[in-house]
Amino acid sequence: MPDPTQQYSAPATEQAAAQKKRLRIAQGILLLFHVTGFVGLGFAEDPSFYLQFVPLNLLLTVGLLLSFQKERTPSFVWFCLVTMAVGFFVEVIGVRTGLLFGFYKYGPTLGVQWLGVPLMIGVNWLMLTYTTGVLAQYLPIPNFGRALVAALLMVGLDACLEPMAVRYDFWQWRFDVIPFQNFKGWFIVSLILQVFFNRSDFVKRNDLAPFVYMLQLIFFFGLGLLR
């Protein structure tokens, strides 16, 4: 007589193996795009050819990342929409007033703009908020502590990104100086979004999130070391 436990464990094992294979494929695609971009931006005499693919790379990264969300419930969709909207409009306030992050303006690298802000900025805020929020879930601490850690992870990545963003005309700062106000503003907005992340009711596990964060960190930190 067959063991019932074996009948149930076999499909579960196959499903786990398929998920692992899917994860490796996604990691390979992201690694290929980022390595290509790293070589092009870091070593090409004219990086403009590679810069035109920055919005596509961001969309690809976010698309693959969200495809590994365990359950895409209405609460999760609402979180994504609100985070993108908040991220976009705080940047609109930022470029128009200078009150949140300092005085800056966007260049053409991030693509189509509305109200002086690239539409991709909302997508970027979603990627960073979601990725760092998921990472902080691994810590055995209260939710507000996780929100603080995740906000610090966002600021840490921004610190690596800022010099490269200026170099490749993502945006430009007044007097070519990155103000400390930028990092304070980033932390405050990030913390608010992380609290919202923790209070949103959806499964906060994503197997691709750690890879995405480390890939972004290594990508921008590595570019900073080249020049």
UniProtKB/TrEMBL annotation:
Pfam families, A to Z = Caroten_synth (PF04240)
**What keywords would UniProt list here?**
Membrane, Transmembrane, Transmembrane helix
Concerning PANTHER family, the annotation shows: SLL0814 PROTEIN
State what protein this is by name.
Carotenoid biosynthesis protein
| Source organism, top-level taxon | Bacteria
Which taxonomic lineage does the organism of this UniProt entry have? Bacteria, Pseudomonadati, Bacteroidota, Cytophagia, Cytophagales
Looking up InterPro entries in the UniProt record yields: CruF-like
Membrane-crossing segments per the record: 25-43, 49-68, 75-95, 115-135, 147-166, 178-196, 208-226
